[in-house]
Design a protein that fits this description.
The structure holds two protein chains of two kinds.
Chain A lengths: L2 H9 L4 H9 L3 H9 L8 E7 L8 E7 L2 E7 L11 H11 L8 E4 L2 E4 L2 H19 L4 E5 L9 H11 L4 E2 L7 H11 L2 E4 L6 E5 L3 H4 L4 H6 L6 E5 L12 E3 L6 H14 L9 H11 L4 H8 L3 H13 L3 E5 L1 H4 L4 H14 L2 H5 E4 L26 H7 L7 H6 L5 E5 L3 H4 L3 H10 L2 E5 L5 H4 L3 E3 L21 H11 L11 H8 L20 H5 L21 E5 L15 H4 L6 E4 L1 H5 L8 E5 L4 E8 L7 E4 L29 E7 L1
Parallel strand pairs in A: 6-7, 6-14, 9-10, 9-12, 10-11, 14-15, 15-16, 17-21, 18-20
Antiparallel strand pairs in A: 1-2, 2-3, 4-5, 4-16, 8-13, 17-22, 18-21, 19-20, 19-22
Chain B lengths: L1 H12 L19 H5 L5 H5 L6 E2 L11 E2 L12 H5 L12 H7 L3 E5 L15 H5 L7 E4 L4 E4 L9 H5 L7 E5 L4
Antiparallel strand pairs in B: 1-2, 3-6, 4-5
The chains are: A alpha/beta, B alpha+beta.
Chain lengths: 667, 181
């Protein structure tokens, strides 16, 4: 087809005038044909393979570029995620091209930001950090990484930077994600582990939603539901995975530990324990579990006595059993002890030995020698949460607001973390950051946290870095360049002589250790000396959430379960993802709604003792009648205006996102 | 008179050739009536936010300059802006509310080639069509060991978002225009 008319169409929006113009030069047919191709000029097509880093699934992706621009993303069939890409991965294209991207570092001047050159911005941050260190000591500086950095090889280098600065205060998402689970499991079995679903005849999914949280593996879960296998889902919401279950138990949020003890009681009293256990341990556990009769469990959890008995029997008779527990169990005040109780069930019913595979609990912190020495000053939260600190060797960031208020924390660098939206107790944190001498935010977008920063450093998104090297993020720097430049500006050039992470890793010699010792069933620990030494109960006790329902707040708020659209506060800039969830919804049971005169779609106010937020109601029989479910990560409907840092798990410091007393009313 | 009269004249003069119906934008009047009403003004394409509307070649004069969609390339996001922009009602104004669209819009029917579909042909796992579908659980449900799509024609509006989302290695979904329009 002729070149000129095609290029015309490719460049501008088609109008009727163009047809008439071209008709005069006899180009109608060509124009029509050009339009039939949607106006795409001839372009070079190229594919590049990489990994999506929007969440921790790390799906293999294939990016198709046309004319050097990203045209589409498909799953990589050759990767271990078998070609899967979710809605958010598809929406990544829109993040790349978004006009909301920041293109230069920004420095606050009064109530607005001014663009600044990179070298000047890095120098400014370094100068201010050094001044704060000189005046208030190194521990007054903290670095916090967010979701894009989970199991990211750069994190050990951020730790290295903190070590060089002399601050022990590096915090990661471990402060509120997965660490309770890892610790709980490791406290019982000496190591973190994961269930191998394909080896199980009975699969229990407890407080987890693989359809949303483990998309590429969801089909394996569904396969586990086929008879003679049993799929038991324990969740106060009838999720997509619960819809496939052979048994669905819906406990009140925060009562899973009571349910677990009820099951343990049956296993012990009905002589269903499949493995040898020291008699004294079994006696201790039996005494702990004795009050949790089926009738009592029903009273505490709303799960029927019948279901408790049925499930206990299936676990021990239809083995081997595998148990997958998730954040639904961890985001409570009693999270660690609940995970422990579940872990003991996994062992006692004989499933662990048959189906669990050890997983490393910690990341490999090694960076090239010589590594700067670790500071000996205790990290924030280390004294209050010694077991957390022993496992994670990081700060517990739920105590950052208190540290700021006490004058112990004066500078905070948020690297890919939108803490002002995603940390519990937004109002208090927001007020606290006003007291900071320095807030630096590293992010591709001007998030709610960035809006409060003194300095914003625009980072690239994962796809702009190698190996995908997609065009986008003009003016942004990759995280490794940013961190290493900051380290050099702080005077640590000898510790940070590399330009890229790849160079640094090459200097480290050898792959990152990720092996775990094989699980040894004889290490089953029912009474934990480690916990008792830390002043906590050694047995897996259950304590009810301290923010208990009351006449003023009769319902239970579950804040922030994973949704199909969005990943934490990410992807709001992607229209295709927004189209799937255009408004933040408060989901509740029709009975709870009718009693309050709330109809589907009504604007509603959800209130807790901390604050109130407006959502739109969605009525669903899938929700436990005493529960209200709201999403997190919405700047315009911030669920963390409803939460705070009271009632933290005393062992891990995790916030109780999923068991707050609340009320809901038409607004 | 102008193009509209010209269009209706050609409609009368040209013999009907047996060929597949074009997938029209939403709100389109039934075949025959649509081509008579459409004045080939291109406004529908001008307002389309995702550029999914394209125009026919001279191959059949009856269809020249009329809008259509290519499902495997770009689906319709059901914004209904084209139905508002159409000056003659060839695309009847339609509310963009998803529950109204569900009832009023039937652009076409989904056709799945299971041999090409990644989960059904055991090549991989996917669910891209399910995630793209504006009516997941109604127009598309998932089944089988790899959670492959099952299409429910009676609940499908024919928007072709599934077809667009289907990975390039598969392109297993097509939308066949129905006589309803």
């Amino acid at each position: 087809m002729p070149g000129a008319p095609t290029r015309l169409i490719a460049k501008k929006k088609w109008t009727r005038r163009d047809l008439l113009k071209l008709a005069q030069i006899g180009g109608v047919g060509a124009v029509g044909a050009g339009l039939a191709f949607g106006g795409r000029a001839d372009a070079v097509v190229e594919t590049r393979r990489g990994v999506c880093r929007l969440c921790t699934m790390h799906c293999g992706i294939v990016a198709t570029l046309k004319g050097g621009k990203l045209a589409r993303i498909d799953g990589d069939l050759k990767s271990n995620t078998s070609g899967f890409v979710c809605l958010n991965g598809q929406g990544y294209r829109e993040l790349l091209a978004s006009r909301a991207r920041i293109h230069t570092p920004l420095v606050r001047k009064g109530d607005h930001f001014e663009p600044v050159e990179w070298e000047a911005a890095i120098a400014l941050v370094a100068e201010r950090l050094l001044a704060i260190r000189a005046k208030k000591g190194p521990a007054s500086i903290a670095f916090e990484t967010g979701w894009p950095f989970v199991r990211h090889p750069l994190v050990p280098y951020i730790q290295r930077l903190c070590d060089a600065l002399g601050t022990p205060n590096l915090a990661t998402v471990a402060s509120l994600c997965e660490a309770t689970g890892r610790m709980g499991r490791a406290l019982v079995h000496g190591s973190n582990y994961w269930p191998m679903m394909q080896k199980a005849k009975t699969l229990v999914i407890w407080g987890a939603n693989p359809a949303h949280a483990a998309g590429p593996y969801f089909h394996q879960v569904v396969a586990a539901a086929k008879s003679p296998r049993a799929l038991i889902v324990i969740d106060p919401v009838r999720t997509e995975v619960a819809a496939h279950a052979t048994h669905h138990l819906m406990p009140r949020p925060g009562t899973d530990g009571a349910l677990a003890l009820g099951i343990l009681r049956i296993l012990i009293e009905e002589d269903r324990v499949k493995i040898p256990v020291p008699p004294s341990d079994l006696a201790d556990l039996g005494r702990l579990a004795a009050p949790y009769t089926p009738a009592e469990v029903e009273r505490l959890t709303t799960v029927s006595a019948q279901q408790v008995q049925t499930v206990a029997r299936i676990l021990s008779e239809n083995g081997p059993t595998a148990i997958w527990d998730g954040l639904g169990v961890e985001h409570h005040e009693n999270g660690v002890q609940t995970v422990r109780a579940i872990s003991v069930i996994y062992s006692l019913c004989g499933g662990l030995e048959a189906t669990a595979e050890a997983r490393p609990g910690e990341i490999d912190w090694h960076t090239p020698e010589p590594m700067p020495p670790r500071p000996t000053i205790p990290a924030i939260g280390a004294e209050e949460f010694p077991v957390f600190h022993a496992f994670q060797r990081q700060a517990q960031k739920q105590r950052f607001p208190a540290a700021i208020e006490a004058g112990a924390l004066s500078a905070l660098v948020l690297v890919g973390s939108n803490a002002l939206l995603t940390a519990p107790g937004s109002a208090r944190l927001r007020a606290a950051v006003d007291q900071l001498d320095l807030l630096v935010v590293v992010d591709p977008f001007l998030t709610a946290s960035a809006e409060q920063a003194d300095v914003v450093l625009p980072a690239t998104t994962f796809g702009e870095d190698a190996p995908l090297s997609l065009p986008g993020g003009e003016g942004a720097w990759p995280d490794d360049k940013l961190i290493f430049s900051l380290a050099r500006a702080l005077g640590f050039a000898s510790s940070f002589p590399w330009q890229t992470l790849e160079e640094a890793e090459h200097a480290r010699r050898g792959p990152r250790k990720s092996k775990a010792a094989p699980l040894d069933p004889s290490t089953l620990t029912i009474r934990s000396a480690v916990l008792e030494k830390a002043g906590q109960p050694g047995l897996p006790v259950w304590t009810p959430p301290s923010d208990a329902p009351s006449p003023e707040f009769p319902l239970i708020l579950v804040a922030g379960p994973r949704t199909r659209a969005f990943i934490n506060s990410q992807l709001r800039e992607a229209p295709s993802v927004r189209a799937k969830m255009p408004r933040p919804l408060a989901r509740l049971h029709p009975a709870a709604a009718t009693a309050r005169g709330i109809a589907d779609g009504d604007p509603v106010i959800v209130r807790t003792k901390v604050g109130s937020v407006q959502f739109w109601a969605e009525l669903s029989g899938d929700i436990h009648p005493e529960v209200v479910v709201v999403p997190h990560g919405w700047a315009e409907a911030n669920a963390n205006a409803l939460t705070d840092v009271s009632g933290l798990d005393p062992i891990s410091g995790f916030p109780a996102f999923r068991s707050r007393a609340c009320q809901i009313a038409r607004s | 008179m102008g193009l509209a009269a010209f269009g209706s004249l050609t409609w009368a003069l040209y013999p009907r050739t047996a060929r597949a119906l074009r997938l029209r934008p939403p709100g389109a009047r039934p075949p025959g009536e649509f081509e008579r009403l459409c004045i080939r003004c291109f406004r529908c394409a001008e307002v389309c936010p995702v550029a999914c509307i394209r125009f026919d070649t001279l191959a059949d004069l009856r269809d020249t300059g009329t809008p259509y969609l290519l499902p495997k390339d770009k689906g319709c996001t059901l914004c209904m802006a084209c139905t508002e922009a159409c000056p003659t009602g060839a695309l009847a104004p339609t509310s963009p509310k998803l529950d109204r669209v569900f009832v009023e819009v039937r652009m076409g029917e989904p056709i799945l080639d299971k041999r090409r579909c990644l989960p059904w042909s055991n090549q991989g796992v996917c669910r891209a069509c399910y995630y793209a579908c504006p009516y997941p659980g109604q127009a598309i449900t998932l089944a089988g060991p790899r959670q492959g799509p099952v299409f429910h024609v009676e609940s499908c509006v024919g928007c072709a978002l599934c077809s667009e989302a289907c990975p390039t290695s598969a392109k297993a979904i097509d939308i066949r225009a129905t006589r309803e329009g």
